[in-house]
Design a protein that fits this description.
One of its GO terms (cellular component) is membrane. The chain is of the alpha/beta class. About 40% of the residues lie in helices and about 15% in strands. It contains 11 helices and 12 strands. The strands form 3 sheets. The protein has an 8-stranded mixed sheet with strand order 1-11-7-10-5-2-3-4, sandwiched between helices. A two-stranded antiparallel ribbon has the order 6-12. Helix 4 links the parallel strand 2 and strand 3. Helix 5 crosses helix 8. The longest helix is centred in the first third of the chain and has 31 residues.
Length: about 325
């Protein structure tokens, strides 16, 4: 009996060691499978206002019209209150916004992905967006319903970026050898990155539906693995001062941290003036952000922006 127990324990230990080795090999493969691709940019910054002013007014107007952003929001039935807030606030500023849900929800219009697995939802949403809208939009922004986005700041950040190049940007995080864009801050893909991703979705060896490792990894890491095989690398978006513009936390949390770490520079030390996203918001905070960003004005302060992004004709953009 003791001999059998001993053999069983040895088997469990050997099996565990084998699993660990397989997982490590999986990470090595992910980290070094695409050395042939040259990564030309890593930290991307917004354009300078001076550079924009050098462009003629007609060219600026043409630029503002040429930027078309398609917004993808991944939702589940439990997110219905957040869903309502997002629908009524910042998504009105997208050139087109569509909600992709895990199941059919009668309350709001959405595209049913028929799965609650976040990676499968993300894959299907990207495929749907590319198949239906690849000829209409040059930038694709994906977010969770807890995220608030200032779409005009996103367009400004992308102003001098060529969508025919493989851009994959947001708030980057490093996990071992893999660098990925956190879905909590929102993910931006250019049309070229969408093309490359779409070409891999049916190749299980490079972009598996369930992942190539024993333990499941998050959907944003899975996306980075697939894109890396296509020579597309995660890039951190920053302003001219090096501050992140895609944020994985709320404004309130940033201010709380600034009051502790920079008590004499709470506002200046909090966040970028050109922030694109904040995350972790409640429905009430979404509406507060909407008021602060798009409604509240300080009398006597003029903000003569060099570029104006107009909503498309017929848009429900307020």
């Amino acid at each position: 009996m003791l001999s059998e127990s001993s053999s069983f324990l040895k088997g469990v230990m050997l099996g565990s060691i084998f699993c660990a080795l397989i997982t490590m090999l999986g990470h090595v493969r992910i980290g070094h499978g695409n050395r042939m691709h040259h990564h030309e940019h890593h930290h991307l910054q917004a354009p300078n206002k001076e550079d924009i002013l050098k462009i003629s007014e007609d060219e600026r107007m043409e630029l503002s019209k040429s930027f078309r952003v398609y917004c993808i929001i991944l939702v589940k039935p439990k997110d219905v209150s957040l869903w309502a807030a997002v629908k009524e606030t910042w998504t009105k500023h997208c050139d087109k916004a569509e909600f992709f849900s895990s199941e059919n929800v009668k309350v709001f219009e959405s595209i049913n992905m028929e799965t609650s697995d976040m990676w499968l939802m993300m894959r299907k949403a990207y495929k749907y967006a590319f198949d239906k809208h690849s000829d209409q939009y040059n930038w694709f922004f994906l977010a969770r319903p807890t995220t608030f986005a200032i779409v005009e700041n996103l367009k400004y950040f992308l102003l001098k970026k060529d969508p025919s190049q493989p851009f994959y940007l947001g708030h980057t995080i490093k996990s071992g050898d893999l660098e990925y864009v956190s879905v909590e801050g929102g993910i931006v893909l250019s049309i070229e990155s969408m093309k490359r991703l779409n070409s891999l979705l049916n190749i299980p060896e490079k972009c598996p539906e369930q992942g190539g490792m024993i333990w499941k990894i998050s959907e944003d890491k899975q996306l980075a693995v697939c894109l890396k095989y296509a020579g597309v690398f995660a890039e951190n978006a920053e302003d001219a001062d090096g501050k992140d513009v895609f944020n994985t936390k709320s404004v309130g949390l940033f201010i709380k941290e600034a009051m502790t770490n920079h008590p004499n520079q709470v506002v200046e030390g909090c966040c970028s003036d050109m922030a694109v996203t904040f995350n972790g918001l409640t429905p009430n905070q979404m509406h507060v952000m909407m008021y602060g960003v798009y409604r509240l004005r300080a009398f006597g302060h003029l903000f003569n922006d060099a570029l104006i992004f107009l909503p498309p004709n017929g848009s429900d953009n307020d």
